Automatic annotation (TrEMBL):
It comes from Panicum virgatum (Blackwell switchgrass). Residues 74-352 form the Enoyl reductase (ER) domain. SMART domains: PKS_ER. Keywords: Oxidoreductase. It comes from the Eukaryota. PANTHER family: OS12G0226400 PROTEIN (PTHR43205:SF75), PROSTAGLANDIN REDUCTASE (PTHR43205). This is Enoyl reductase (ER) domain-containing protein. Homodimer. GO terms for molecular function: 2-alkenal reductase [NAD(P)H] activity.
Length: 357
């Protein structure tokens, strides 16, 4: 379990040790289940290839993100922006926080704390750590680098300011607002001087939006019989900026409430990931209202990361931004944690603690 994984690596260099890994058993149709994945007992040798720039890392925290569901279905080569997982043999991968065990790379040494993409496993050998980033702010919980100081935080920052170009005095609506990205979007919009409303799937999450994250208003979409009416109630003058996380019926209702020259930053559409045929949306609304709706990939804004990291670290230190995490303990808990995202069981950013330092 996690306690065993948390022990400091004491084995001799070159020794083979157990490496528990999460693999996809089969391609998924509909909602994923825990049985679609399996935790297997792999093995890893505590070594890096001689003369290589590889690093061997011990994974500490794994990030659970809804986009992983899109990789669990077989796609054509052009229909998915990241490769599908390969059932039966490939270890799932995603962003994580890790500690360097051995290194052949001149920029990293044993003991360094990094974040980047690794396997869902206890140890990962990274042949070329070009996309690994050093953790610069160890005064915060390391898990923050799977969320507010990592890809979800940068996604919120880039989507709100670079894509949607939110400005002081505008009305901003955020769906899935209590999640890893949404909670940061709302707080950044408030710091900008926007009026901010969010939707979430439980009264507990709605309360968090209003009391902890400082949203001006929020509603539980599961209790609303008419989403269009809910948006008109909370945003009677319309929506300037919509940060889109869910798609489907919510997007359709939002389009009817957008203001002229409104902007929509499309981050994700979690309500659609488990459907064989996506819900229809009245996109003609974009025409009459001159709405700009733009999808984006956070990787396009990787060059902004250093600036974002320092700005977000300052907000955290000053208490202007806070975050909520939902931490599952042990790599065995990873499949259930991922599946739980689609039932809304998580409150805040979902993280799996493989090992604690």
């Amino acid at each position: 379990m996690a306690a065993a994984a948390a022990s400091v690596v004491a084995e001799a260099e070159g020794e083979e040790v157990t490496n528990r890994q999460v693999i996809l058993k089969r391609y998924v149709n509909g909602c994923p289940t825990v049985d679609d994945m399996e935790v297997v007992a792999g093995a890893v040798r505590l070594a890096v290839p001689p003369g290589s720039a590889a690093v061997l890392v011990k994974n500490l925290y794994l990030s659970c993100d809804p986009y992983m569901r899109t990789r669990m279905t077989r796609h054509s080569e052009t229909s998915n922006f990241v490769p599908d997982y390969v059932p039966g043999k490939q270890v799932l991968d995603n962003c994580s926080v890790c500690k360097v065990v051995l290194s052949g790379h001149p920029d990293f040494k044993p003991g360094d704390l990094l974040w980047g993409v690794t396997g869902w496993e206890e140890y990962s050998l990274i042949p070329n750590p070009v996309f690994c980033h050093r953790i610069n702010h160890q005064e915060f919980p390391l898990s923050y680098y799977t969320g507010v100081l990592g890809v979800p935080g940068l996604t919120a920052y880039a989507g709100l300011f670079e894509v949607a170009k939110a400005k002081k005095g505008e009305s901003v609506f955020v769906s899935a607002a209590a999640g890893a990205v949404g909670q940061i979007v709302g707080q950044l919009a408030k710091l900008t001087g926007c009026y901010v409303v969010g939707s979430a799937g439980s009264d507990q999450k709605v309360n968090l939006l209003k009391t902890k994250f400082g949203f001006d208003d929020a509603f539980n979409y599961k209790k609303e019989l008419d989403l269009n009416a809910a948006l008109k109630r909370c945003l009677p003058h319309g929506i300037d900026v919509y940060f889109e996380n869910v798609g489907g019926a919510m997007l359709d209702a939002v389009l009817r409430n957008m203001r002229h020259r409104g902007r929509i930053a499309v981050c994700g559409q979690v309500s659609q990931y488990n459907l064989e045929r996506p819900d229809g949306v009245d996109l003609f609304q974009l025409v009459g209202k001159h709405i700009r709706m733009e999808g984006f990939l956070v990787s396009e804004y990787a060059g902004d990361y250093s600036r974002f990291e320092e700005e977000m670290a300052r907000y955290l230190k000053e208490g202007k931004v806070v975050c909520v995490e939902d931490v599952a303990e042990g790599i065995e808990a990873a499949p259930a944690a991922l599946v739980g995202l689609f039932a809304g069981r998580n409150v805040g950013k979902q993280v799996v603690a493989v090992a604690r330092e």
